[in-house]
Design goal:
Strand content: 35-45%
CATH class: Mainly Beta
CATH architecture: 3 Solenoid
Number of domains: 1
Number of strands: 26
Strand order of the largest sheet: 1-4-7-10-13-16-19-21-22-23
Radius of gyration: 18 Å
Shape: globular
CATH topology: UDP N-Acetylglucosamine Acyltransferase, domain 1
Number of helices: 0
């Protein structure tokens, strides 16, 4: 189905009460629950599920086979790779209803989540961080971090544009991103972006 605002494939289900921003494209077999909030200019791939208490910011790209459950908040400009997994409770049991115990998961602006990443609920993924494919995220990720593995471990830093920076994990240093010409300054264990 195409209207003046969005492109929504005919196989998708959009429940009444869902909010979808201008220019968003929703592809095959995607299910958007009532009261879900999706921003402008997003792309949701095939077989994506968005819960009724999920929030997705502007210009977010969600690849195939991803479920965004209740209390997952994704800020603008996030990329979510195929078959990434979000959870909303740490100790699920089929025989126990724990919907009142769902935990908030926050993915901050500009982060990249690789294919087949699992994100345990209750964590915050920092701005412009990059999580390598297949990682298991069980704790907060710092802004601009490059993390990989199971459990995930920081192995470096990336710029806003996903360019790996040659900086130590700890200590101090600075580098200019070759793509953007912005300067990145490492102080102790935090990375800051500055205009040159």
């Amino acid at each position: 189905m195409k209207n003046k605002e969005n492109l929504i494939h005919s196989t998708s289900i959009i429940e009444q009460g869902a909010t979808i921003g201008f220019g968003t494209r929703i592809w095959h077999w995607t299910h958007i629950m009532k009261n879900a909030n999706i921003g402008k200019n997003c792309i949701l791939g095939q077989n994506v599920f968005v819960g009724s208490r999920a929030v997705i910011g502007d210009n977010v790209k969600i690849q195939n086979n991803v479920s965004i459950y209740d209390k997952v908040i994704i800020e603008k400009n996030v990329f979510c790779g195929p078959s990434a997994v979000f959870t909303n409770i740490k100790n699920p049991r089929s025989l126990v209803d724990r919907k009142d115990q769902f935990m908030k998961t926050l993915v901050k602006e500009g982060a990249t989540i690789g294919a087949n990443v699992t994100i345990i609920c209750g964590v915050t993924i920092g701005r412009y961080s990059l999580i390598g494919a297949g990682s298991l995220v069980s704790k907060d990720i710092k802004p601009f971090s490059l993390v990989v593995g199971n459990p995930s471990k920081q192995i470096g830093w990336v710029s806003r544009y996903g360019i790996k920076l040659r900086l130590p994990l700890f200590g101090e240093g600075e580098q200019i991103c070759k793509f953007s010409q912005k300067k990145y300054i490492l102080k102790k264990y935090n990375l800051f972006e500055r205009r040159v």
